[in-house]
Structure prediction request, 121 residues.
Amino acid sequence: QVQLVESGGGLVQPGGSLKLSCVASGFTLDNFAVHWHRRAPGAEREGVACINHSGEADVYATSVKGRFTISRDNAKNTVFLQMNSLKPEDTAVYYCATDRYDYCSGTSTTWGQGTPVTVSS
Prediction:
């Protein structure tokens, strides 16, 4: 069964950090670029970051650049999102998704179920 499972979300105070994980099963993740998306309450889904299949190239949304870092461990079939200096506006459900290709084309195919992140004091 092809599956992506996110974890690591939770409640954190403004200025804090969280590290999200996205573990793939049923397929080899290193054939694909991987995206992190988020959907805040009442808002449209937003692309947060993407990393290519080898981990040598990444791209970030302007709103998170310099605070979030995407990385991957292909030996563990896992992609991470390190989130630092969190702000209340980062509150959202975070989803990982594979790209159709091994580079960040913007076409997400397989999706995880999401992990919620709440930034609040």
User: Anything to note?
Assistant: The chain has a mean pLDDT of 97. The CA atoms of residues 7 and 28 lie 19 Å apart.
